Fold this sequence. Notes:
The structure holds two protein chains of two kinds. By secondary structure, chain A is α+β, with helices and mostly antiparallel strands. Chain A is built from four helices and 21 strands. Chain A is globular and about 60 Å long. Chain A starts with a strand and ends in a 5-residue tail after the last helix. Chain B is of the alpha+beta class. Chain B folds into two domains: 7-101, 2-Layer Sandwich (Gyrase A, domain 2), CATH 3.30.1360; 112-249, Beta Barrel (Cyclophilin). In chain B, 23% of the residues lie in helices and 28% in strands. In chain B, strands 1-2-3-5-4 form a five-stranded antiparallel beta sheet, covered by helices on one side. In chain B, strands 6-14-7-8 form a four-stranded mixed beta sheet. Chains A and B meet through strand 16, strand 20 and helix 4 of A and strand 2, strand 3, strand 4 and strand 5 of B.
Amino acid sequence: MSLLIKDPGFATTVQDLGRFGYAHLGISPAGAADGLSFRIANMLVGNHENAAGLEMSLSGATIEFQEETTAAITGASCQIALNGVEIAHSHPVCVPIGAILQCGRMIDGARAYLAVQGGIDVPSVMGSASTHLAARFGGFQGRSLRKGDLLNLGRKNLHAARRLNLNVTSIKSEGPTRLRVTRGPQQDWFAADSFATLFSATFTVTQHSGRTGLRLAGDCVVPSKTAQLLTEGVSLGALQIPPDGQPIILFVDQQTTGGYPKIANVVAADMHRVGQLRPADKVIFEEVSIDDALQLLRQQERWLRTAFEED
Amino acid sequence: MVCVISYALVPAAAEIAFIVTRDSGIKIIRASDSSLLVEFESVIDPALHQRVLNLFRAFLAKRDPRIRNLHPAYASLLIDFYPLQVGHEDLESQALALCEAEKIERDESPRVLIIPVCYDTEFGLDLADVAKHNSLTADEVIRLHTESDYLVYFLGFSPGFAYLGGLPPKLRTPRLTTPRTGVPAGSVGIAGDQTGVYPVDSPGGWRLIGRTPLRMFDPSATPPTRLQAGDQVRFASISRAEFERLAEKDRDFQCRS
């Protein structure tokens, strides 16, 4: 009654929507880097949107299903084959017992998500199934999956699989990824020209990017204030500026506190885009107000509710 | 203690991103669409930190499911929330009310925890360097390190990592120029005017002076970390034999004090 990992791909972990309520103990949320795609995958197979699934980075996994079930893959597009026959992305698929699901390289993003009806059955640690890679706990034995790992499936749920009535397979448009930001807690540390640079330059995602944070390269954004910031809590998506002026987007596996000034913060509605950035991708920032950011998030939730066909 | 923060910090933009109150001496910043930062004065001070703790504990006690995370630090509290469930205004007024209410000094005596440390050179790889940097003998470093009382300001950096205040100035040593790629869990180090214990195996640039046999982080325990913000800590020097004995005993130890 399980999934056998024949090939884990580049980096595949068990995730849910994150572990919250432990930041004061130094514990970052982890969770799906592209939470929106993750939720869609679960909704497609009729799961609760927080059911544990697999996050596959850059290249997908090959998995033997030792149980008949329904599965869906969302997020970055990649070639998906079931017993050698190509199948659709963002679409619930019945997987017969013994079938091999093969996911290829990510084509237009960084991460794809596999949801299986009933979810992956891993122990809940501090209320979450997410893998905390740095401290090696949660998920499947606190680590990325390896060849030969056997994952149990959770109990099948009552909801039937659903279909999308919108095309969500293309998650990235041509050209730079636009990230909308609100001004950050140290906005008064930066002069107008720093904001002008931030909002006009194109930044490149460097190789030193991952689930802890994305290091960007581009025009220097330098604080006008030279004081040392007292270490303080940092929020998800904060855009911190280290002394070299190259912004870092703090991400799901971030440290819970930090000592660099934060010029801006990616809006909640765009965090899923951050999860699809890969090295060499281009990023531009656009300023919005907090009210607009919340409006965008509400719109996104409305879109998600209407994205599925009625049964 | 009332601190007055200049209104000049308020940006000219039409949107009000800052709330500054003269009465409670705090500044509330909308850090993102999902978080707000309550800032006290920007100094490291135990009395000021008590106010951070009081506010943090008051929010924690509410068990408000709309709040995702609380990040207390030296002089601030970041409140991270579900933005579709609760708004900035609601939490800002809660924070202000709680800051008003905590004007009476609380007299809660902190937990005091003893952390046994083996300072043998096998673990204290940089003990000699710390001694040399401060013109001390290794024994004097150990004596100074174990004589001081330390305050856990907050946990951050990695699960269970405590930012401790109270390192004797005579022990200040800059961090390594090249961080080690692997520092074993339990390692006790010094970096600048900070000292701390690595709770999990991780890379790190602190000068290592010893190791504790205690598990500082255990994800299956409740709570998962041995230390909590507001605790007082003392280090006690133990022999290598005692280290082994305690390590064995602590293998199944739940991080409860």
